[in-house]
Write a structure and sequence with these properties.
It is built from 4 helices and 4 strands; from the N terminus they run E-H-H-H-E-H-E-E. It has a 4-stranded mixed β-sheet with strand order 1-2-4-3. It has one domain. The longest helix is centred in the middle third of the chain and has 11 residues. With about 100 residues, the protein is an alpha+beta fold.
Length: about 100
C-alpha cells in the first residue's frame, strides 16, 4: 500500500477488507457485509464482476483514489483501460492502481 495513499478512499477486494482494518485503514467493504447494507454489498458485487459504469459511479460518489485487488479480479481489465488509472504495485497477492 503506497504510504501517500493510505489515508485516501480505497476500493478494495472483499477479502482484503480485514487486512486494511488491521492496518488502520478504512475499507470500501469487508467481511461484515451486514453493516454496509444490501445496496452497498450488491453494488460491490457488480463492481467486482467488472461493471464499469457502476465502478465509475462508486469512484465519483466515494472519491476513490486507489484500488487494491487480487490478480484474478474481473475488474482489473476495466481499470487497465481507463486513462486516469495507473498501476503502481503488483505482487503475488494482488495489484494496486492509483487514480491520477
Amino acid at each position: 500500500m503506497p504510504p501517500a495513499l493510505a489515508a485516501q478512499p480505497v476500493l478494495n477486494a472483499y477479502d482484503f477488507g480485514g487486512y486494511l482494518i488491521f492496518r488502520g485503514k478504512r475499507p470500501y467493504i469487508d467481511g461484515r457485509g451486514d453493516m454496509y447494507g444490501d445496496e452497498h454489498v450488491v453494488g460491490y458485487s457488480r463492481i467486482a464482476h467488472g461493471d464499469a459504469a457502476l465502478f465509475g459511479q462508486a469512484v465519483q460518489r466515494w472519491t476513490i483514489r486507489w484500488v487494491i485487488l487480487p490478480n484474478d479480479s474481473k475488474l482489473l481489465p476495466v481499470i487497465a483501460r481507463l486513462p486516469d488509472w495507473r498501476l503502481v504495485a503488483r505482487d503475488k497477492a494482488g495489484v494496486v492502481y492509483v487514480r491520477s
